[in-house]
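Quiz preparation item.
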């Protein structure tokens, strides 16, 4: 597998999450199936970012350490909003729709901030070769998370600390 720039890989995940949000909002889509895919991707993405990328990015000047730490706090907020949605039994109910919008707000805010601050800083200040190394590490960790069933409600509860 050719090395992949960590910034590009993260951006691809963000676009996939946005697509899954559209599917979860659509009464014509398999909303429960989209939520299952989203849950796995959000958890695997966040865990891989924190394990393999965040610490490395903090070592580069021009990458805002406070924004990286703030991003980790926002992962926790997104995970809590995800858990709240996963715990609603009736997909498409008013409660489900409300919690979905809470999740969309939390994750969209984080994605927007991360893309403007951390990822732009990484593009400008982290050498291509290092971004490719981080991309490989991120993808390996994300794949391990996905294979472990990381999006299950039980695992999300564990991560949230409930």
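Solution:
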């Amino acid at each position: 597998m050719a090395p992949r720039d960590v910034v590009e890989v993260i951006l691809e995940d963000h676009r996939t999450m946005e697509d899954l949000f559209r599917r979860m909002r659509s009464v014509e889509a398999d909303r429960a199936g989209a939520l299952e895919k989203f849950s796995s991707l959000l958890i695997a993405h966040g865990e891989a970012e924190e394990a393999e990328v965040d610490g490395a990015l903090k070592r580069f000047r021009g990458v805002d350490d406070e924004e990286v730490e703030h991003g980790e706090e926002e992962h926790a907020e997104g995970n809590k909003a995800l858990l709240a949605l996963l715990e609603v039994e009736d997909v498409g109910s008013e409660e489900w729709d409300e919690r979905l919008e809470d999740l969309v707000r939390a994750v969209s805010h984080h994605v927007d901030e991360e893309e403007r601050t951390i990822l732009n800083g990484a593009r400008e200040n982290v050498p291509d070769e290092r971004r490719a190394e981080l991309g490989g590490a991120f993808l390996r960790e994300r794949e391990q998370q996905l294979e472990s069933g990381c999006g299950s409600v039980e695992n999300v509860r564990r991560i949230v600390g409930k």
